[in-house]
Amino acid sequence: MWHPIPVSEEKETDPYLTKQLIAYIGNKRSLLGFLGTVFSSLENKGDRTVFSDPFAGSGAVARLARKMGYSVLANDWEPYSKIVNSCYIGINKSDLKNLFGEYGGVEKVFREINHLDGEPSDPYISRHYAPENTEEADYHTERLFYTTENALFIDRARTWIEERYSGWDLDEKQLKEKYILLASLLYEVSTHANTSGVFKACHKGFGGHGKDALTRILAPMEMEIPHLVDSSEKMIIENLDAADFVSQNSSHMTYLDPPYNSHQYGSNYFMLNTVALWDKPPVSGDRKDDGRFVEKAGIRKDWIQTRSPFCYRKDAPGAFSGLLDSIDSRYIMLSYNTEGIIPFGELYDIMENQGRTELYCRDYILYRGGKQSLSRQNYNMELLLVLDRKEKPGKSDRKKVERFLLERKLITLLRRPFHPEKMKTNFPCRNQSVDLSPSQDGSFLLGTREYYVFRDMPSTETLEVLSDRQLETLFSLLEDSLCGDNQEEARVLINLMRQSREEKMRNRYGRRLLQVVRKFAFKKYRELFEETARELERLIADENKVFGSLSEGLASIKSIAAMRFRG
Ligand SMILES: C[S@@+](CC[C@H](N)C(=O)[O-])C[C@H]1O[C@@H](n2cnc3c(N)ncnc32)[C@H](O)[C@@H]1O
């Protein structure tokens, strides 16, 4: 069975849940409202709820569980995660007034660190990961993960912390103080990085060629006192392999959020571990003949110690079922993605083997319909599977869930850009509407914009009438009607601009065209980009009334492309 969960339109504003979260792939910050609704429907009514989060990452979900009053068991095998969770999950707000007495209190200690000055005694981040001088940074010969000033800030702050709180063999109060300072520094380290999110590479030049996020990257670092909340419940924070962690800790509900693609967190976030551990591993300075680094990002070598089995197709199902066997909880929830490494059917079977498994999903695609953006092309769906070990599996549950997913996949497909000619070949089309009904009786008519994007979305009732076979046929016909690639979409948009009588629509297609062309503005598509840009310039000159609005945008994309081609 599946359950759509209404998503509140109200924005979460509590800083404990929304602020000071490290930038983290796969973090569930935007799903907190949805997850909170599911958690409260499963909690141990009238008794304490012990909530386990073995893949806690940034700690977004563990924070929610703490705020909901649960006893939280948070674990992740990356050291930086243990530190941020030890701070935000392990420390009470009311503790703050009793800490940092020898420095005159928490405010004073933060002020002191934020005002540190001078050369750090043994610079490390500024030596290996930042340029000599921000203004004269040279991405050919220097690593540009931080501005010179911010790299020095990290060196000074981290050295200050380690000089006062050396190692991890500290008493409880000192540990709390160290976690607070490090969690705050790690947030700065993750926020002001000159990367597009992960540390496997930095931008060539500050802000990258698009100069996006430049303000964030250049802004001087300043550590903030963490936003904490009080709780009288017991918290456990660990740094173990998830399977070991769950076999040592029982809970009422366990929330599993393992990686679902091949990207390893240890290498993607190596910089956070470097600052967390402050063990200063050697960084290769070897250079090629042209002066560039052989190891461009200087990733620490020991990241392979946390190479996750969940990132490999051949290992993930075994790791997942082994993990389930080790968990002692009535409820086990799994966040996963329809495009994840373990196919949905396999996941469902593994979970259903242990009891009734239901699918919860955010109720936002199926019933909202209406407006859609020209640029939405997302095929993925976030799933939450909930296993109740006390209930027996229902007979047709898997079939119902698969059917539901197929309907969702169809809705997602309907949001993509189509090729009008292909659409007209595959379906009866009239008056801007497409007839998607199998018997072509007009019972399933959807309005479009020039047969390029759908304006309407089908109602649940319309879809329910279709058999599984019919739904699958419809899906494959629609897939066959999509724009095959960006180049084809660009061609469709040029035609639509020509055909549009309304300036508003022409501009809309023009903006989309520029977005599409921007996608080719990379070295590997150089020929295609240059050919498309030449064609657009010809059109701007020959049919200026139609295409003139493209000229400014095209010039800016061309200058970004030129920089990329040179780099
Ligand atoms: C999708 S992220 C979790 C995101 C988290 N729920 C959040 O909101 O930030 C997956 C996490 O699993 C951790 N991880 C992967 N394999 C692990 C393992 N075998 N044991 C413990 N942690 C693991 C990674 O370090 C990463 O932080």
Automatic annotation (TrEMBL):
It is an enzyme of class 2 (transferase). The keyword Phosphoprotein does not apply. Its EC number is 2.1.1.72. Keywords: Methyltransferase, S-adenosyl-L-methionine, Transferase. InterPro entries: MeTrfase_D12 (IPR012327), SAM-dependent_MTases_sf (IPR029063). GO terms for molecular function: site-specific DNA-methyltransferase (adenine-specific) activity. Pfam families: MethyltransfD12. This is Adenine-specific DNA-methyltransferase. The keyword Transferase applies. GO terms for biological process: DNA restriction-modification system; methylation.
